[in-house]
Amino acid sequence: MTTPAAVLWDLDGTIVDTEPLWMAAETALAAQYGATWTEEDGLGLVGNDLMESARIIEARIDSGLTPEQIVAHLVEEIVVAMRRDLPWRPGARELVHALADAGVPQALVTMSYREIAQPVVDLLPFDAVVTGDSVTHGKPHPEPYLAAARALGVDAASCLAIEDSATGAASADAAGCVVLAVPHMVSVPDGPRRRLRTTLAGLDPAGVAALWSGA
């Protein structure tokens, strides 16, 4: 049974359950300016490039802040929350370690900035890291996944990407990856090179190889 040349991991909602932290920070920011930010608004940003999300937030709350200022504020809030607690998603941490033990190269591919990703990077054995502040075009553009594959010295088409959002899955699709979608806060539509699971709990390298072989 063949295995992917590498496994490329999304972060938010896939490895750690940070989406509620982002939504809380967005809601609090909107409240500072007398605006309302709903759960539906927050869900609409899941998987997005942070600067694009900031532009959407500003159009809604009319704070007078620049997108850069909004991103800086949100990043600071999430960093504080991540340093306090890492809300791991079921099975994700265990699968990263198991794949590393099996010799499968892995990269983190996240639209969160490096400062946010660092606590996770410090604890998990990734061979490469691509963050939102290291690319020109964020998800759903293919650049993040292409950059990760390039950093690992493999073809993106030979990689399995693990994602929880439609935006992230679209990015991996566009790069040519096979996508393992594990929806969490938002739904992810099926596709010809997609595999859907409800959880990563119980998934091991043999299971990953089986998913890959069926792609």
TrEMBL record:
GO molecular function: hydrolase activity
Annotated coiled-coil segments of the chain: none
Source lineage: Bacteria, Bacillati, Actinomycetota, Actinomycetes, Propionibacteriales
Superkingdom to which the source organism belongs: Bacteria
Keywords annotated in UniProt: Hydrolase
Pfam families, sorted: Hydrolase
InterPro entries registered for this protein in UniProt: HAD-like_sf, HAD-SF_hydro_IA, HAD_sf, PGP-like_dom2
Name of protein: Hydrolase
